[in-house]
Amino acid sequence: KGQFFKNTRVQYIIRNYAYIGKIHYQGKLYDGLHAPIIDEETFQRAQDLLAENRVDRNVKKNAKCPGLLTNLLRCKPCDARMFHTYAVKNGKRYRYYVCMNAQKSGYSLCPTKMINAQSVENSAIESLNKVAIEIKNKTIITSDPVWEVLFPQEQRRIMGLLLRQVDYDPDTKKLALDLNEDGIKQLSAEIAGNGQ
Q1: I need a surface site. Which of 26, 62, 135, 139 has the fewest CB within 10 A?
Q2: Contact assessment for residue 119 and residue 97, using Cβ atoms and an 8 Å cutoff
Q3: Which of the 8 DSSP states describes residue 38?
Q4: Is pLDDT at 194 greater than 70 in this prediction?
Q5: What is the pTM of this model?
Q6: Lowest mean pLDDT, pick from 1-5, 172-176, 183-187
Q7: In terms of pLDDT, which residue wins out, 139 or 48?
Q8: CA angle, 172 then 174 then 176, to 5°
Q9: For the residues 144-162, what does the mean pLDDT come to?
């Protein structure tokens, strides 16, 4: 079973000077010992089309609104990161996480596609609360009343300390949490330091 080409791979192929019999080395172009397989005019037209179709990536719309699980949530079937974004409809903001593989390779290839941000964030917090009770760890402060009054940036920082990764399984609609033992120790030391 083969794999789909990713955009970056296709662009690498199109920009490869080897196809016109050249070698790019240390910023300079040299004639290669191999014969070209396409003419330079065709190669240049391809470069011009790439430049013409280039999309400048400015500050992303969701950069000011990162989710609680930003850089933690992954789509289990695709083994791909899920990124936080939102849409505005009738003046209301709807937040969700999108599988990077679905966004890049096509939504039909991913069973997860996208999930409601608030639901998955609430599930992650509920799961952390259960873990905290099971292992009798007060460092996992997501159930503490102080959690609700923390700024979102601090909540994200703490989630990054508590967790290495969160996998979402669309078949079971459940999360698998990978606890960050070193981060939990660091957070415990921070809490102990503030308590003195």
Answers
A1: 26
A2: no
A3: S
A4: no
A5: 0.66
A6: 1-5
A7: 48
A8: 125
A9: 88
3-state SS, residue 42:
helix
Strand-pair partners of 163: 179
Burial per residue of 91-109, b for 16 or more beta-carbon CB atoms within 10 angstroms, e otherwise:
eeeebbbbbbbbbebeeee
Cα separation, 108 vs 105, whole angstroms? 9
126 contact partners, CB below 8 Å, separation of at least 6: none
| Strand order through the sheet with 163-169 | 114-116, 92-99, 80-89, 73-75, 163-169, 174-179
Q: Are strands 92-99 and 80-89 parallel, antiparallel or unpaired?
A: antiparallel
Query: Rg of the chain's alpha carbons, rounded to an integer?
Result: 23
Residue type for 5, please? F
Residue located via tokens 């790439």 = 50
Extended strands (E) in 69-188:
73-75, 80-89, 92-99, 114-116, 163-169, 174-179
Q: 150-154, 172-176, 185-189: which has the highest mean pLDDT?
A: 172-176
Higher pLDDT, 175 or 62: 175
